[in-house]
Amino acid sequence: MERLVRSQKLRLSLASAIIAIGIWSFLPYLTHRVATSAYVNAVAPNRGHLVHLEQQLAVASSQIILGRAQLGEVCNAEKALTVRLQIYRKAALEGLKGSIQVAKSLWIGCLAE
After folding, report:
1. What is the pLDDT of residue 39?
2. How far apart are the first and last CA of the chain?
3. Within 10 Å of residue 35's Cβ, how many Cβ atoms?
4. How confident is the model at residue 45 (pLDDT cuts 50, 70, 90)?
5. For the residues of 22-78, what is the DSSP string, one character each?
6. pTM (two decimals)
7. What DSSP string runs through 20-31?
8. What does the buried/exposed string (b/e) look like for 71-84 if buried means 16 or more CB atoms within 10 Å of the residue's CB?
9. How far, in whole angstroms, is CA 76 from its chain's centroid?
């Protein structure tokens, strides 16, 4: 048995048989019309998936453009709000200064009486 396993002729014959079976099993796929139509049918769903991905890209691109436009509007609104806040702050401080002056005048008047 050991002599049979170590036989180079037997190993070469077995390897050749395995290679021949492999070639024989794939030969119809390579030589017949079915092979080309199977390849086309395999590629067609991928094209549909590609079209779907292209549509998703178009939607995402339009959302990015819309988002950038909205971000610009928010930045402009923030600038306007900052200006309004500074005006309000200045007016509030002036009002407080006036109130302080009135309170001081009244206090001085009360002390004088």
Report:
1. 64
2. 133
3. 14
4. low
5. HHHHHHHHHHSHHHHHHHHHHHHHHHHHHHHHHHHHHHHHHHHHHHHHHHHHHHHHH
6. 0.45
7. HHHHHHHHHHHH
8. eeeeeeeeeeeeee
9. 27
